[in-house]
Amino acid sequence: MSLTxxxxxxxxxxxxxxxxxxxxxxxxxxxxxxxxxTSQRMVRALETVFDNVEITTDVERRRHWKLxxxxxxxxxxxxxxxxxxxxxxxxxxxxxxxxxxxxSLESLRDRLLxxxxxxxxxxxxxxxxxxxxxxxxASRPGPxxxxxxxxxxxxxxxxxxxxxxxxxxxxxxxxxxxxxxLEPYGLLLGIRRYLVAKEPxxxxxxxxxxxxxxxxxxxxxxxxxxxxxxxxxDHSARAFGSFHSDAEFGEVVWRFTPAAAKVxxxxxxxxxxxxxxxxxGALTVRFQxxxxxxxxxxxxxxxDAVEVLAPRELxxxxxxxxxxDFAALP
Length: 330
Known about the structure:
The protein is α+β, with helices and mostly antiparallel strands. The protein has 12 helices and 11 strands. The protein has helices at about 5-20, 25-30, 35-50, 70-75, 80-95, 100-115, 120-135, 150-160, 230-235, 260-265, 290-300, 310-320, and strands at about 55, 65, 165-170, 180-190, 195-200, 205-210, 215-225, 250-255, 275, 285-290, 305-310. The protein has a 5-stranded antiparallel β-sheet, covered by helices on one side. The chain has a 4-stranded antiparallel β-sheet with strand order 9-10-8-11. The model is unreliable at about 135-140 (pLDDT under 50).
């Protein structure tokens, strides 16, 4: 067996041990990029090497492979690359102001380092610092708004329940913070961070509350039933950034000049975008979203290398501010 195949087999064993229901052929294809027949060969190798693999079939007639005895997998210890990835996640969470995640990830990192031989741990930490420096995470905090750690902790506990959440909120047009009773559904992270929640006293609409404007937060006394049809990823995809407005939602079309097309092609402007190569080398990007002001902030960086084709309101915001003297593209 080649070294690559041996590594793939160990990774497959990790997956089969870690996932509660085991792994399916589809899981293997997604992880390793293999076709159906190759995935079948991999699970046959798993069955051969690990004779304690349990095979079950679910209600949809899909087979699952579950590894119960994890001693051989645990003997591998922690890889340098895994510790580096964890350290990078801590720095990203720190940069985004996600204090709860930072503490949890740091606790996990410290427990992993405690299981490693001293020399291995020191080398892994040095490798992590070198890679972080190369990526710029060591000295690039980035702009963001502040949120009180206690507020974040309370929101995290409410989301786990899910419990109702009692907050005092300083809205844009209010002098004094007002009390609100919410049903929290999730967080949108970015330069501005928002709590996505319903406020039943008003209506059943999903609303956004800026974390930096929540002055106090405490757990409510009751659980609530989450809307089973709500999906946070689908909800967040309706916006370009973190601001949502049903009135602004619709098709967005930008055309980048031939000189800017190569740079624009490497950008993910929206998770559901599509590109069209135009005659002459221009590039058109299309997606559906809202948040014209955040779009305008981003488009300003492109100067006159981009033309807004839709919506009309965004074009009116951008056209009067475009410049042709920027020395570089984003």
